[in-house]
Structure formats: structure tokens, C-alpha cells
Predict the 3D structure of the following.
Amino acid sequence: MKTLVQLGAALLALAAVHTLAQPPRQQAPSGPAPRNEAGRVVLGGATPLDRGVWTPVFGIRDPVAPLEVVPFQDWSRALYDTRQVHELEPHARCKASGLARQFLTPYGVEFLELPELQQLYIFDIGGPHTYRTVYMDGRSHPTDFEPTNYGHSIGWWEGDTLVIDSVGFVEDFWFGRRGLPHTNMLHAVERFTRTNMNTIEYRITIDDPGAYTGQFTGGFNLRWNPGDELFEYICQQANYADELMVGEGASSVDRSSPIVP
């Protein structure tokens, strides 16, 4: 007979599956994108009191760009194919993931622009619960920075489009859900265009001569979820996707450890 603890865990797992299976809630008809006093589009609510977060519009083609437009080198295509079998994504083990992968999580992200600091922050809500800093003061990339999962990001506005230019990445994360490879030569330009109250068009251009024979561009849309806000999220706690962490049966690769080196 199952213990009460086991029954409770089973019920919680069923509730989580039921929640994920629900259709997305209906949004109100979309109005124009909100603007600040200077007339420029903002990536939050119409006022500081209007809470909300951005989540991906599912149904996108994954990975970040259709495979037929990705100019793989031989080794990067082989590594991509291997990742489709083993599925050892670091994000499933609570590691921070930069670029497009940051926006492909169920709980979404929040943009916080601080003009007085000339910085913009992108907060993850699920996963590793980390954040990314974008410098908006007109600086260039330094030559002596320490590479990280989020890289070094500088940004500026082109009309109603936020442009973020990033370099300085480690190779330890996947920048898309399906595992397109990259090297420390990766240079990415992301463009965020809020076309109305409920939609951001996200486009990303990848330039990594270490992994690809040329540049390529992909993207998807983000959806505004009014009323939602940041909440405390502990990545490992109540994580029912354990097969993504240690494997189901561990038949094709040793996943006995939940830790990615």
C-alpha cells in the first residue's frame, strides 16, 4: 500500500500534468502597445502598477530556427543529432541558459528598464531563477570580460525595437530548447518589437564561425500575461520532469547523476 507521502506526491504530479494540459487562457482583445512619457514603447505594463510577464507562444518551430536554414559545420550537426538522442539539457538541471532559451520557459520573463542606471534587466521566473543585465549607456563590449552563460550584453532602442548585442559566452548551455551547438566565438543580436499590447516579436541572429558556416536568423513571439508577476521558484523542488535530469531507464547514456559538470 502506498504511503500518504507517496499518494500526496502522485496527486501533485497529476495536478501538474492537468495544469499543463489546460488550453491557454483567453486574452482580452489586444490594444496598442503602452508607451512612456517620451512616446516610446515599453516592455511592461502601461503603468508601474500594471503587473505582467512574457511567455513564449507555443507551436513555434523548435529549435530557434528551422533546421533547413541552419548552416551547420559537420561537427556541430553531429553534436546536434546526438543531443536529440541523449537530451541532456543543462537547463533541466537548473543551469542558466542565455539568448533564446531564456524566453522558452513556461513561467516566462519580466523586463525591467532602469533609465537612471542606464541598464535593463531580464528576470527569469522559472528554471535557475537568475537574471541578465543589459547595459544601455552606449558602451562597447570590453576585451577582458569573463565569459558566462548570459554573456556580455549591450542594448539600445531603434524606434520601438529593443536591440541587444551579446558576446562572451561559455559553451555550457543550450541557446535553444533542442540543443543547437555553439562555441565561445558566438555573437548574437536579438530584436524585441512590441507590436501591440499582447505581443512581442522576438528575432535572433546567430553568428558563430566556430560552429556554423554562416549567419542565420530565427525567432518566435512572446505573449503578455497580465496580472502575473515574479514568484519564488526553487528549481529542484517538486520537479516532476526527473527523466530529463537522470534519464528514463538510463539506457543510452549514464544519467545516474543529476549534476551536469
